[in-house]
Amino acid sequence: MKEIIVEFEKIGHNGVSIGRYNGKVVFAYGILPGERAKIKVIKEKRNLIEGEVEEILEKSKFRIKEKEDHFLSCSPWQVFDYSYQIEIKKELLKEIYFQFAQRQINLNDFFSSPKIFGYRTKIEYSFLEENGQYFYAFHKRGDFKEKIKLEEGCNLISDEANFIAFEILKDINEEKLSGLKSLIIRKSQRFRDIHISLLTFQKNQNFKFQNKNLSGAAFIYSRKESPASTFDEVISEYGSVDLREKILDLEIRYHYSSFFQNNVDLFEKALKIMQENSKEFKKVVDLYSGVGVIGLSLKNFAKEILFVEIDKTAIEYTKINAELNNVKNFKAINLPSEKIPKEILENVDLLILDPPRAGLHKKLIKLILEQKPKNIFYLSCNPITQARDFGLLKDYYELNKIYGLDFYPNTPHMETLLILKLK
């Protein structure tokens, strides 16, 4: 395999380090700006090279020792000093908005995470099979076919969750299960609830979870044809099917198959910012609403809250969470946000948006521009698509405030919150 020596200049918008070699752009993870490194060439095209770091020849003063040998697969910024990570993310956010929204922004604030390890509420381990034994693994970054064995799990989730996962692994190997796809761990941050989902692409078997430290577990059939961990059929369930969480003054429940935010501490911070920027709203619409946390957190400001969510199970939990928190003034609709009728956005005082990484559908943006809600709170896990969407809204909406939140320490990812007002 070809090796080259490269000096790296900066970090790209997707978190990869960028350098140049013989007129070609070189991409590799786990290298800091200003470092010189020996790179193994993985892919080479006419104008670019994708590489893997072999050795750091000249180190940045901001480089620190990694905590895990698999860090490139889970958290490639683990070798960056944490305060330096925050500074890079601030600059990247400004660059992203300048490039994708043609807007120079002044951040109102950028919030670091109280925890930089053990903060995740969910993690997924793949399986690696060797000599009839299963091991946990991550897919190698940039190569879905190759897997990295995890001897002790991953530090992005709690030690307790990892300990239980490895107890489950012993039981799996003793039971001699086959056709295993992945194991998903979900961990409450404010309670002791831990749920395990074990996914298999072979239906003709079962696995009885006997670990007393689990609040719940499920054995799930997931199609082999899909690389994603899809929940296609429940084979068996044990214990509770949901997890409890405390968010601000809210009691929250969510199903093990539904989306839930990964960093509870910073999610609370985002909710507090929304509360601080709220007044009395007659009509609030919460799109991509999940299990209803954002809309419910504004219960004291809203006369009427409408939740819209594509996940049927999540909508059922929205109703449960509304009842748990004594919220009566709501409706919940199971519908893709891009398919809502225009009446839903008529006379809206506040529109809440928290879409997946792909951002807002063009149909929804068109509807927003037609109906013109007075205020928008837009929380995003992908500032690139958020900036693109704001670029389409900016002729009608003033960017009142913008915040960065480091929901994902030691990774290139971040969360951003826009506070928009109709001009």
Question: How would you characterize this protein structure?
Answer:
The chain is built from eight helices and 22 strands. It is of the alpha/beta class and 423 residues long. The protein has three domains: 3-63, Nucleic acid-binding proteins (OB fold (Dihydrolipoamide Acetyltransferase, E2P)); 88-114 and 263-422, 3-Layer(aba) Sandwich (Rossmann fold); 122-244, Beta Barrel (OB fold (Dihydrolipoamide Acetyltransferase, E2P)), CATH 2.40.50.1070. An eight-stranded mixed sheet has the order 6-21-22-20-19-16-17-18, sandwiched between helices. A seven-stranded mixed sheet has the order 9-8-7-10-11-12-13. A five-stranded mixed beta barrel has the order 1-2-3-5-4. Strand 8 and strand 9 (143-149) form a beta hairpin. Helix 2 (82-100) packs parallel to helix 8 (383-393). The longest helix is centred in the first third of the chain and has 19 residues, at 82-100. The termini are far apart. The model has no long low-confidence stretch (mean pLDDT 96).
* Terminus-to-terminus distance: 57 Å
Helix share of residues?
10-25%
What structural class results from the helix and strand content?
Answer: alpha/beta
Rounded mean pLDDT is 96
Q: Any idea how many domains?
A: 3
Shape: globular
CATH class of the largest domain: Alpha Beta
CATH architecture of the largest domain: 3-Layer(aba) Sandwich
Q: Which band does the percent of strand residues land in?
A: 35-45%
Helix-strand pattern: EEEEEHHEEEEHEEEEEEHEHEHEEHEHEE
Radius of gyration using CA atoms only: 23 Å
Strands of the biggest beta sheet: in what spatial order?
A: 6-21-22-20-19-16-17-18
Please name the CATH topology of the largest domain: Rossmann fold
DSSP helical segment count: 8
Superfamily at the CATH H level of the largest domain? Vaccinia Virus protein VP39
Uncertain spans, ≥5 residues at pLDDT below 50?
none
The strand count comes to: 22
Biggest β-sheet, characterized? 8 strands, mixed
